Amino acid sequence: MQGRLERYAELIVNYGVNIQPGQILDLGSGLGKEELTRAITASAYRRGAKFVDVNYWDPHLKRMRVQYADEDVPLPPFWGGYRVTPDTVEFWMGRENRLHDRLRYRRGDGGGWVIERLSP
Fold first, then answer.
1. Would 73 be classed as within a structural domain?
2. Is the pLDDT higher at 99 or at 42?
């Protein structure tokens, strides 16, 4: 079955869509079609697609979006948690020579983020 699925995906990408190197593929898929969607995505990348954007269509999600279009979706009473709102976040990008690239993002006065480059 897997080989047949891959051959079908190759037919779709090569002849149905005719993906060329560097193109972007926008792929719509339904729930339960994940294997075929993965096969088409893999085939498109092998063919040279720059990016494959997969959008799943979920009828339950669509119904809820219509039902609660003008209001917040109610949460179950057993849902809980904490909201984390950092004032400062630091990112490290390691390098071979141990001179790491460090960036600090801190919340500015206007609510936006101020980026600071730190010394290794």
1. no
2. 42
